[in-house]
User: Fold these one by one.
Assistant:
Number 1:
Amino acid sequence: MRFAQMRRAGGIAAYEQELKWIALALGVASTIAIVQNWYPLNLFLSLPFCVIWIYFAWLHTERQLKYVNILFTGFYIYGIARYFVTGSGLG
């Protein structure tokens, strides 16, 4: 019911289906980047994928999905930060 109210009110919840398609594309691209060993592209593609799914887990109160994606978001942020701090991303 709360979701229906948010959808009527507009906001990002009104774009749920579009965001899920974007998340799917990001997930597929991230998987391809992992298989092709295109580091760190996989980190940059996976982070927004997880953020989108954190949002929808909060929206629909899917507790387990929310915490798994929070955990992976932390891993991706750590990996991206480490990539730049170690100098790998600076040229």
Number 2:
Amino acid sequence: MEAPDNTPQIVPSIEELEAQQRRLVLPRFTYEDAWALGSLLVELARERQAPVAVDIHRAGQQLFHAALPGSSPDNDAWIDRKRRVVERYGSASYLVGARFRAKGTTFEDSSRLDPDVYAAHGGSFPIDVEGVGVIGAVTVSGLPQLQDHALVVEALERLVEGMRD
């Protein structure tokens, strides 16, 4: 199970999370782009000594996976559950959970989906391609959910910036 986050953090609003998704649409997403994004996530995690696993899926195919020191098989299970939320809803796993919380409930209580199969916890983000739509997901697991989400967003921001230069 992912560790609870005991440090006070600024929780992004639903509007901020939706704005991230609108901003982080890629002009393309090739095998090389998957490698670049996964490698960037590994580099960022190593710099921070983050005990995470990183995964990138596109159209049902795993294009990238890495497990860093301190991660465990549980992280892979969390990755699968968070990724399934992105695949089902087309939105970041953290955003899906936030939408349920905003309604005064939880994903687990109200989604009618098996919590052993789906987890609306932060860390999985849709790979959205201009003119195509959501084609996959990039997922990180091992940190508190808001930090998992923020790490993925940071890497996607860098990737998008590099693609637009």
